[in-house]
Design goal:
By secondary structure, the chain is an all-alpha fold. The chain folds into 3 domains: about 1-30; about 30-70; about 80-225, no CATH class. It is built from 12 helices and no strands. Helix 3 (about 40-50) crosses helix 4 (about 55-70), helix 6 (about 100-115) crosses helix 8 and helix 9 (about 170-185) packs antiparallel against helix 10 (about 195-205). It is elongated.
Amino acid sequence: MSTGVIIALIVVGIVVVVAAGVFAARTKPRGGRSLRSRFGPEYERVVARHDGDTKAAEQELTERVRRHGSLHTHELEPAARERYQARWAAAQERFVESPAEAVTEADLLIGALAKERGFPDGSRYDEQFEALSVHHGPHVHGYRRVHLAAHTHLDGAEANGAGGGTGTEELRAAMVEARALFEDLIGAGGQVGRRDRTDEAADRATDGTTTRHERTSPLKGRLAKGS
């Protein structure tokens, strides 16, 4: 074999190795700032759950990206979007008379909507939540909160025979926070919940003395005041 051929083979080998390294670097989930940016507040919650062990938390989040990062979702058809918007609006209206039922419906609705978008089935909540956290990290906590509130109420109702274990204020805050993820999943043109429906309904359910001025003030301000 001539010297020229040997050199050519060496060059080709180097090119292949470099290309493989670049591909691996691009597809491998990166930690630190990359994970913080992708997961938003979920990053800090996982770190806290690992008692401040950043390395363990980033290993968990990196594993989530490995499992669900390549998941392909699809947009909703206009008719499906309208159907989900109508269901969410109905759940908001129901909050006035039955906050617990409204939150349970919101939990089920987000699970069904996520499944229709291409995420794992809502009956496998943990798996679905992890996949959602990879693609909707900044807002996924709303789903966790409404799911926990719904199931805490159901467990409390079974234990107490009726009442339920979650206060109305917690149910209201859970449903309001879950709306951000719902709007993310609805997609383009999917802003939902007029202020006078979602928030006034919640106000009437939690405080019969709320003034009209308070009902028209920003929702986040009221949550901060009540926390």
